Amino acid sequence: MSEKVFIEFLSYSVRKSKNEFNWLTMRQYPMNLKDKVILVSGATGGMGEELVKLLSQEQCKLALFARREKKLKKLKETLESESTQITYKTCDVQHKSQVKAAIDHTLKTYGKIDLAILTAGILVPNPIQTFDSSIIKQTMDINFMGVVYFTEQLLKVMKKQHGGTIAAVSTLPDHRGVPGWGAYGASKAAISWLMESIRAEAKQEYDINVITIKPGSVETPMIQEYHRPGSITPDKAAKIMINGIKKEKRVIQFPIAQVLSIRLQDLFPPIAYDLLPIEQAKGAGYPKVEEE
């Protein structure tokens, strides 16, 4: 980079920072969720369900989507009140047509979407002994493409609205591969890259906030067979997520002990990272498999 280009870039950065500071000082934190239309995918999962329970106390309008209709119906019957409206529809996020139908349902019911929290996902081991491309495809279709399909539709809606927030759940270890969990890790790392790639432009051009949520170990049914030290409860995770969204954080990562540990490991050179105990990385309860 030439000296002239560097100086121009530095000058631009200072101007943008000043403008952002002025913009920030005019905003009121935390964000008030009252009367906001909030879409939640994966609403019947561990963190998703806890999010819905907490959001139902915010006097907002909820649109819930997941594959299990009975659980969606139960959430509506249990949580809906005079101050909290709830609508729902079944949605398998790996099907683009169903995602579009979810967006259309929300708009037909409420007329807008202020906030979308995308939590739908699966966690399937993929041992090297039986390396299976079908597991990777399924995981990418649900975890990553599900976010892509929703983001595609949400951007269209929020551009017309001139604002909104998209928050997608990635994972804390999104910089380095974890033995045995390549399918899950790849799908979540892809989410992190996608969200970061659109975040600045979405904000600067359309006033759309893009948030990447990076949880460490959370005691959801998804990991109940794989003991992880330092795991936190789903309700605690949901509180952290909602607080971070209200503050319009760009990245929400937790719990703090795991954040420090994993970010330290990110600094290891490959030769050192490869010396970490493989079985410990996989976690207790990881299936023992024989070579095919």
In summary, what is this structure?
The chain is of the alpha/beta class. It has helices at residues 3-26, 46-55, 69-79, 96-110, 133-161, 182-206, 234-246, 256-266, 270-273, 278-282; strands spanning 37-41, 61-66, 85-90, 115-118, 164-169, 208-215, 251-254.
Q: How is this fold's topology laid out?
A:
Elements: H1 3-26, E1 37-41, H2 46-55, E2 61-66, H3 69-79, E3 85-90, H4 96-110, E4 115-118, H5 133-161, E5 164-169, H6 182-206, E6 208-215, H7 234-246, E7 251-254, H8 256-266, H9 270-273, H10 278-282
Parallel strand pairs: 1-2, 1-4, 2-3, 4-5, 5-6, 6-7
- C-alpha Rg, in Å? 20 Å
Low-pLDDT sequence parts: 12-26
Contiguous helical run count: 10
Which CATH C-level class is it?
Alpha Beta
CATH architecture: 3-Layer(aba) Sandwich
Counted beta strands: 7
Provide the β-strand percentage band.
5-15%
Give the spatial strand order of the biggest sheet: 3-2-1-4-5-6-7
CATH fold type: Rossmann fold
Please, could you describe this protein's structure?
This protein has helices spanning 3-26, 46-55, 69-79, 96-110, 133-161, 182-206, 234-246, 256-266, 270-273, 278-282; strands at residues 37-41, 61-66, 85-90, 115-118, 164-169, 208-215, 251-254. The protein has 292 residues and is α/β, with parallel strands linked by helices. It has a single domain, classed as NAD(P)-binding Rossmann-like Domain (Rossmann fold). The chain has a 7-stranded parallel sheet, sandwiched between helices. Helix 7 (234-246) links the parallel strand 6 and strand 7 (251-254). Helix 2 packs across helix 7 and helix 5 (133-161) packs parallel to helix 6. It is globular and about 55 Å long. It starts with a helix and ends in a 10-residue tail after the last helix.
